[in-house]
Design goal:
With 331 residues, the chain is of the alpha/beta class. The protein is built from eleven helices and 13 strands.
């Protein structure tokens, strides 16, 4: 199974540093997420109800009625390859690399033929593929694709019955770059998540924006009551809080730029960044990750290619701590 960030308990045990003393920058989750208030007691005593207002809140936020709510976009990442195999059989799947490994893993698990694609290989190879799976902006590399470029690829795929699947888990801070439209056209599937921008990874709520046949297939696969009542209540409140969203969009873009500048200063090399994380390739990635961990800072290290990903610190004291540790490593 693919490995992910956030394994804080394992790091605490390995390095002998109590969990409370760590600065966890190993994920791309907003460290200043939507402030969850006390929940009404009744959300714990009743089965989830689809007419509780969450669906409409999600439609208003994402801007399309062609929407299925799922228990985290991970549920869709796992279910879509199975649905596609049932509908169309074994297929040629182009998957952006490096990228979130769960996508390729689950397409391969369902017996599809995987074709890893670097960002600059997509245009030349797209006409030989049945499905192209992208992340925009890409986790972990920070690679971005313009809406115009993506629409062109979608058109080429759709003309011959192909599909473009775009995971937009990190796009909320730049909503103008989203491919979501109303209605969603044939051949296009977009995944969204409340885990990153909203900082609500623990409630496991995501969305599939897609034509009706895809949404119906996903709904049958996932089944009823997939999202708990407490999660539905929290998700609805977060989605309708436009004031918080506007303030957070500005703040995260500023913080993303700050992280990029800090890392370029410390490492002396180009850094790719989004509003929620920054990524740089370096042969010293394992050593830097180890030295950071010895100082109680958890970051992600990748092997192919050798690279590091840093999430955002949550406050000024954490920013200063990160800068100090990186300066010491640099010296």
């Amino acid at each position: 199974m693919p490995l992910h960030g956030g394994r804080l308990n394992a790091a605490a045990e390995r390095y002998g540093i109590p969990r409370a003393q760590w600065l966890d920058l190993s994920t791309g989750i907003n460290p200043n997420g939507w402030p969850v208030p006390p929940l009404p007691p009744e959300v714990f005593s009743r089965l989830p109800e689809e007419d509780d207002g969450l669906q409409q809140a999600a439609v208003d936020y994402y801007g399309s009625r062609d929407l299925l709510l799922v228990p985290g976009s991970q549920a869709a990442i796992q279910a879509l390859p199975h649905w596609f195999r049932q509908q169309y059989g074994r297929a040629m799947i182009g998957v952006l690399t490096p990228a979130y490994a769960e996508h390729g893993f689950h397409w391969q698990q369902q017996g599809h033929v995987l074709q890893p694609l670097a960002a600059d290989e997509i245009d030349a190879g797209i006409d030989e593929l049945d499905v192209v799976v992208l992340i925009n902006p890409c986790n972990p590399s920070g690679v971005r694709f313009s809406p115009e470029q993506l629409r062109g690829w979608h058109a080429r795929l759709a003309r011959r019955g192909g599909w473009l699947l775009v995971d937009e888990a990190f796009i909320d801070a730049t909503p103008g770059q989203s491919l979501i439209v109303d209605p969603m056209p044939e051949g296009l599937i977009v995944l969204r998540s409340l885990g990153k921008f909203f900082g609500l990874a623990g409630i496991r709520v995501g969305a599939v924006l897609a034509p009706e046949n895809v949404r119906e297939g996903m709904s049958r696969t996932i089944g009823p009551w997939a999202i708990s009542s407490p999660a539905r209540w929290v998700a609805r409140q977060a989605l309708i809080d436009r004031c918080w969203q506007q303030c957070m969009e500005k703040m995260l873009n500023n913080q993303g730029a700050r992280l990029k500048a800090l890392l370029e200063k410390c490492f002396g090399r180009p850094v790719a960044s989004t509003a929620l994380f920054a990524y740089l390739e370096t042969q010293q990635a394992p050593n830097v990750a180890h030295l950071c961990a010895q100082a109680g800072i958890l970051i992600r290290s990748f092997e192919q290619p050798s690279a590091l990903r840093f999430g955002l610190p949550g406050n000024e004291a954490e920013w200063q701590r990160l800068e100090q540790v990186l300066s010491e490593i640099r010296r």
